[in-house]
Sequence to fold (110 residues):
Amino acid sequence: PSPTGLSLPTLSLRAGGRVEIETPSRRRILFYILRGSLTVNGAEAATGDLVRFADGERIVIDTHEQSIVLFGHGDAIDEPVAASGPFVMNSMAEVDQAWRDYRAGRFGTV
Fold:
């Protein structure tokens, strides 16, 4: 288990295969299709698609061709989330402040 509760493994799937995954509740789960095409719970997905799942949803994958999928899952944080560009905060006001700080050079230099 990850100390942060976040996991991001890569799945390499053979053409013509089927995978069934039982997911625990209280996890946020997504697939990002890096390469290939497949059917996920009856819906078509292909390279570049992001697929999100409901809490505790069973996942059934049928592959049409060799595919690579980024399988992200993490603990539910039960907090509001606001995002813009690279910034993820709890409110848009915090995101806006982060942009102002960035533009003002308050993040230092690389």
Q: What stands out?
A: The first strand starts at residue 6 and ends at 7. The chain has a mean pLDDT of 91. DSSP finds one helix and eleven strands in the chain. Residues 92-103 form the longest helix (12 residues).
